[in-house]
Amino acid sequence: MGANHLGEIAYLRHIAQPNIAVVTNTLDAHIGEFGGFDNLVKAKGEIYGDDSQNIVNTNTTFAGDLSFGERGDVFASHINNNGFDLNIADQKVTVILQLIGQHNIDNALAASACAHALGVDINTIKQGLENTQAEKGRLNVIQQPNLTIIDDTYNASPQSMKAAISTLLTFTGEKVAVLGSMAELGDEAKTFHQRIGQLAKDSLDAVYTFGELAKHYDGMHFEDLDQLASHLLTHHINAVVLIKGSRMVKLDQLVNRLQK
């Protein structure tokens, strides 16, 4: 269930009447629409109820019936890139995800907790996790003859930007980011963009920006996607290029141009 205002998840919960409810995290996506972090947490908590089995992330302040994450009922150990040991109720199996990014291990734990609550055995959970592939626009790695593209264009928030940059840093070779504007950040939008821009410039080989708010990243700015695509193909042969921004800037069109 998604929302950008208080009461929306409560309304959707009333319709769906879930048997199991889970909040994956309480970070900063859409924070500007909620009017602050406290309201964002309150809105996400609307998914929980007395008539459902409530699954919580140990990094949040929610109380529930089953937890996942560090010190949770379901947790990961011996993490190595996209591999980890999945621990559930005194059982342990090794899982190798096809997904990249530390945050996808957290997502895998959330899914595992839900499956465990439904009575699915740990080996079946392992099989399901290892068969899961990245959706288009969500850290999808696209190998081109002279370029590796990390397509994360589905959407963007400050926290997901940090996660994507951290994932890019696990690759070898020249590391380049194309960062688009982040939407729905309210009065703090400029500050959020400046912080992400500083992080990117401090850790990557090159940073390019697209979209009005993206100017606050203080990278090399482009107004035209064709020109940006041409620049990348000319100046960053064999580089790994992360492309990420909110849906409104349509950076998926840049991904398409780079694949022509």
From TrEMBL:
Its EC number is 6.3.2.10. Residues 1-115 form the Mur ligase central domain. GO terms for molecular function: ATP binding; UDP-N-acetylmuramoyl-tripeptide-D-alanyl-D-alanine ligase activity. The keyword Lyase does not apply. Residues 137-247 form the Mur ligase C-terminal domain. InterPro entries: Mur-like_cat_sf, Mur_ligase_C, Mur_ligase_C_dom_sf, Mur_ligase_cen, MurCDEF_CellWall_CoF430Synth. It holds the Pfam family Mur_ligase_C. SUPFAM superfamilies: MurD-like peptide ligases, catalytic domain, MurD-like peptide ligases, peptide-binding domain. Keywords: ATP-binding, Ligase, Nucleotide-binding. The keyword ATP-binding applies. PANTHER family: UDP-N-ACETYLMURAMOYL-TRIPEPTIDE--D-ALANYL-D-ALANINE LIGASE. This is UDP-N-acetylmuramoylalanyl-D-glutamyl-2,6-diaminopimelate--D-alanyl-D-alanine ligase. The lineage of its organism: unclassified sequences, metagenomes, ecological metagenomes.
